[in-house]
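2024-03-11 09:14:02 INFO worker-7 job=invfold-0412 stage=load source=structure_tokens
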């Protein structure tokens, strides 16, 4: 299968200790976040793959030098992803609201646990789903 690598600029803005909010100038409304720079870059690449994997016409890349940053500590970086790999790995997701005990939720949030990831892993295990 032929690779389909795309590279676009992303704006990384620190929002709290070692947590980054990531937005993409070329796709308005596309956002993600990451805990630590490694996770932030992985999440940015994953977001690009999820957003663009089935697009026939890709957005024109903004020149990173033209992106104005006003927030202190924020920076622009190029992020690449393989759309072919994203398409092969893509599994449509749905949003579900869940109720959990407040104390449990608070502890999980303090430890920066991703609720969607944990629920997905638990369901896969419970259902023996690959």
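2024-03-11 09:14:09 INFO worker-7 stage=emit residues=130
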């Amino acid at each position: 299968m032929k690779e389909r690598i795309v590279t676009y600029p992303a704006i990384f803005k620190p929002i709290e200790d070692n947590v980054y909010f990531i937005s993409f100038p070329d796709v308005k409304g596309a956002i993600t976040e990451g805990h630590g720079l490694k996770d932030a870059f992985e999440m940015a690449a994953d977001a690009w793959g999820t957003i663009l994997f089935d697009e026939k016409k890709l957005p024109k890349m903004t020149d990173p030098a033209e992106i104005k940053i006003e927030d202190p500590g924020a920076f622009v970086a190029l992020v690449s992803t393989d759309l072919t790999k994203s398409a092969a790995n893509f599994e449509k997701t749905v949003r579900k609201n869940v109720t959990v005990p407040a104390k449990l939720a608070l502890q999980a949030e303090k430890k920066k646990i991703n609720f969607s990831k944990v629920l997905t892993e638990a369901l896969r295990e419970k259902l023996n789903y690959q």
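2024-03-11 09:14:09 INFO worker-7 stage=report msg="The mean pLDDT is 86."
2024-03-11 09:14:10 INFO worker-7 job finished
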